[in-house]
């Protein structure tokens, strides 16, 4: 796939576009206060939200810095590190919605944001991390979503190779999770080869990248998948 953007010093020339479709609306029987509590518990600390930053106490100065819309995320720091899933004692009145929320929370935390099954997307998810289900659909600058995410993942992989002196080669995007807001983040799972050879195995990798509405791209991390789920 051709790159139509030149990435320099962590930035690219892409314009931003909303890539996710609205989720289903609230069921009248869903407890909105409980949903708000759950959203706060599983929100990505890298998300910049002025109302959240005012209402929550955060002793971690580095996370506070990431919440600043003008700050760059720290390379190779995963905001999900150290987080564990704990089943909420409070149940929603809507049993189906409650089950979806529990499955959604567990999958996000256990995969560090990189995978959630579309059928587990709960109601009322107007923000948060969700999969991009149509990678072949149009994105920006005449690119498909797959091509757009290929460039984002390649920027992360280039930084990994530069930092480690490696030569990992990008092959193809497998799936993508997306978190909107004022600091949109892409969680891209892809396959790569760690050396050039026709016999080199395809390995599953993860790239996490911040792409702002100011057309700035900041690689956050790139690594082999912690729990590979894709098999040849």
From TrEMBL:
Listed Polar residues bias regions: 1-14
Origin superkingdom: Eukaryota
Start and end residues of each stretch annotated as Disordered: 1-92
Basic and acidic residues biased stretches: 68-92
Feature: compositional bias, Acidic residues: 43-67
InterPro entries (UniProt xref): Cystatin-related_pln
Stated name of the protein: Cystatin-related plant
Species: Arabidopsis suecica
């Amino acid at each position: 796939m051709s790159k139509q953007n030149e990435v320099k010093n962590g930035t690219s020339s892409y314009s931003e576009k909303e890539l996710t479709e609205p989720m289903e609306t609230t069921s009248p029987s869903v407890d909105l206060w409980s949903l708000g509590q759950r959203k706060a518990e599983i929100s990505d600390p890298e998300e910049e939200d002025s109302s959240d930053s005012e209402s929550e106490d955060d002793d971690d100065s580095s996370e506070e810095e990431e919440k600043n819309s003008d700050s760059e995320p720290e390379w190779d720091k995963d905001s999900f590190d150290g987080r564990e899933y704990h089943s909420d004692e409070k149940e929603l009145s809507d049993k189906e919605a409650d089950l979806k929320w529990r499955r959604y929370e567990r999958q996000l935390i256990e995969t560090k944001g990189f995978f959630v099954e579309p059928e587990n997307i709960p109601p009322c998810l107007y923000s948060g991390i969700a999969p991009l289900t149509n990678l072949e659909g149009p994105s920006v600058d005449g690119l498909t979503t797959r091509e757009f995410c290929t460039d984002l993942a390649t920027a992360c992989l280039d930084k990994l190779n530069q930092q480690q002196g490696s030569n990992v080669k990008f092959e193809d995007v497998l799936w993508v999770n997306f978190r909107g807001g004022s600091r949109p983040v892409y969680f891209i799972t892809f396959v790569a080869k760690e050396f050039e050879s026709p016999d080199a195995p395809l390995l599953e990798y993860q790239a996490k990248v911040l792409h702002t509405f100011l057309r700035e791209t900041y690689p956050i991390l790139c690594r082999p998948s912690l729990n590979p789920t894709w098999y040849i």
